[in-house]
TrEMBL record:
Domain Fatty acyl-CoA reductase C-terminal: 406-504
Protein family according to the UniProt entry: Belongs to the fatty acyl-CoA reductase family.
Alphabetical list of CDD domains matching this protein: FAR-N_SDR_e, FAR_C
Highest taxon of the lineage: Eukaryota
Gene3D superfamilies assigned: NAD(P)-binding Rossmann-like Domain
InterPro entries: FAR, FAR_C, FAR_NAD-bd, NAD(P)-bd_dom_sf
Entry-linked SUPFAM superfamilies: NAD(P)-binding Rossmann-fold domains
Catalytic activity: a long-chain fatty acyl-CoA + 2 NADPH + 2 H(+) = a long-chain primary fatty alcohol + 2 NADP(+) + CoA
Protein name: Fatty acyl-CoA reductase
Species of provenance: Urochloa decumbens
UniProt KW keywords: Lipid biosynthesis, Lipid metabolism, NADP, Oxidoreductase
Residue intervals of the Thioester reductase (TE) domain: 21-331
EC number(s) recorded for this UniProt protein: 1.2.1.84
Function: Catalyzes the reduction of fatty acyl-CoA to fatty alcohols.
């Protein structure tokens, strides 16, 4: 690792480089693409691998989902009329997918890329906690395999940056270290995680489902077939995750992806960046900009619309959150620090719970203050009154509340419906579906609300210590959580960002 770095070192590193980025249409991907283009206009090329039937469709996706977003307003203003031409010269959209061998690219394109790529950044992931097991394995596990196979063909490759999640550690208590996951390692004692066995299991279950469906449904029932398979794959993912000690399919498959990366990387320099819950941009280019609802934003949106009277959380617990731009700053610094370190594999926690913990109460009080000072106005033009929210400090209390308030009335409605020959069937089915959905959310998201772990970030702290923060330019690459005033950030940046970008 370099002994000292500053903004000039980081900016200089990306000059003339060719970079392949997966997951560029996602939140972090967009921030990274914009940052590189803005701070280093002399980057050679940024290749963005996106799903598309052909190059024109991939280019259209990049334009609409990445370049045309508000995030690029600062760069758009800086470049003026030459903005679009600059982007077209630097950004190349590739129609492909990491779930396929050769990344879904034709051989001539693959060979040309292999001669040119200096850095690979893998951000692509399916982040659905309750996603299909087969899809999650394809993207979060097999995608890593296919990228590793391509990386080994790249003659000029200096670095493979892989973005994971801090929660691959599961929901342990105490200090959680920045260390790789060993092959076979699982979170439940007495179990051995065999990735190949999990891949075989999915193939076998899908084969059985196909045989069962073909004998049960006719050809015209393809929708039912797909629904049955989708439900079965979702349930299998949760079942396997919990069998090995993880809470959901997303963190389970991301953990497997890390293991596979460690096994297949060879002597390629690898950095694994594990952010915790990523929140809106704090500093640049657009404070408050965000995409996609994070766990904590459910509280903010529900509170803003005043349709959420209670939530599952202990306000004294720490919610480990980190702004998206700080994660990207850490990624860029780490790429520079470990470039061309043959055989290196470094794990970084981009987190805040150790250096600058923020409790759920800080978020709630910031929300109360924001909405009292800036009350929401409904579609009818009337002010939506800001009410207090009740928080359940245990899952057991929440379950009791749901039984007394919703489950028992539902059972009574079910009985009345039977006595009236199905008169209330539509109402009962609708309410019962909503009740089950809420309980599923609690089941999947509950562990985050009561997480008692603390992520050690000693590796990232060592990287921070190499950073010179002497000039305003150096602040462009700040990734120190100690510099965040959480109350100010939530009140003035994050919550207004949620209102602007998520509450449309």
């Amino acid at each position: 690792m370099l002994d000292a770095m500053d903004a000039a070192t980081i900016v200089g590193y990306f000059k003339g480089k060719s970079i392949l980025i997966t997951g560029s249409t996602g939140f972090l991907g967009k921030i990274l693409v914009e940052k590189i283009l803005r701070v280093q206009p002399d980057v050679h090329k940024i290749y963005l691998l996106v799903r598309g039937i052909d190059e024109p469709s991939a280019k259209q996706r990049v334009q609409q989902e990445v370049i045309d977003t508000d995030l690029f307003d600062l760069l758009r203003e800086k470049r003026g009329k030459g903005f679009q031409q600059f982007v077209e010269e630097k950004v190349v959209a590739l129609a492909g997918d990491i779930i396929h061998d050769n990344l879904g690219l034709e051989t001539p394109m693959l060979e040309a890329l292999a001669k040119e790529i200096d850095v690979i950044v893998n951000i692509a992931a399916t982040t659905n906690f309750y996603g299909r097991y087969d899809v999650s394995l394809d993207v979060n596990v097999m995608g890593v395999k296919h990228l590793c196979q391509f990386a080994k063909q790249c003659a000029r490759l200096k670095m493979l940056m892989h973005v994971s999640t801090a929660f691959v550690s599961g929901f342990r208590e105490g200090l959680i270290l920045e260390k790789p996951i060993k092959p076979g390692e699982s979170l439940r004692e007495g179990t051995f995680l065999d990735i190949d066995a999990e891949l075989r299991l999915v193939r076998e279950v899908k084969k059985q489902l196909t045989m069962t469906n073909s004998s049960t449904y006719s050809d015209k029932d393809d929708t039912d077939n797909n629904k049955t398979e989708r439900t079965a794959m979702k349930e299998l993912g949760l079942q396997r995750a919990r069998h090995f000690g993880w809470s959901n399919t997303y963190v389970f498959t991301k953990a497997m992806g890390e293991v596979l990366l460690g096994q297949l990387r060879g002597d390629i320099p690898v950095v694994i960046m594990r952010p915790s819950i990523i929140t809106s941009v704090r500093a640049d280019p657009v404070p408050g900009w965000m995409q996609g609802t994070r766990t904590i934003d459910t509280i903010i949106i529900g509170y803003a619309k005043q349709n959420l009277s209670c939530f599952l959380a202990d306000l004294t617990f720490v919610m480990d959150v980190i702004p998206g731009d700080m994660v990207v700053n850490a990624m860029m610094a780490a790429m520079v620090a470990h470039s061309e370190e043959k055989g290196a594999q470094v794990v970084y926690h981009s987190t805040s719970s150790l250096r600058n913990p923020a409790t759920y109460n800080v978020l709630y009080q910031s929300g109360r203050r924001h909405f009292y000072e800036n009350p929401r106005v409904g579609k009818d033009g009337k002010v939506i009154p800001t009410k207090e929210m009740y928080f359940f400090p245990t899952i057991a209390r929440f379950h009791l509340y749901m039984i007394l308030t919703y489950k028992i009335p539902l059972e009574i409605l079910h009985l009345v419906n039977l006595l009236l020959c199905g008169f209330f069937s539509k109402l009962y089915n609708d309410l019962n579906r909503k009740y089950k959905f809420v309980m599923l959310l609690v089941d999947v998201y509950g562990p985050f609300a009561f997480f008692k772990g603390c992520f050690d970030d000693m590796n990232l702290e060592r990287l921070r210590l190499t950073m010179a923060m002497k000039t305003p330019e150096d602040q462009m690459f700040n990734f120190d959580p100690k510099t965040i005033d959480w109350d100010e950030y939530f009140t003035k940046i994050h919550i207004p960002g949620v209102i602007k970008y998520l509450c449309k």
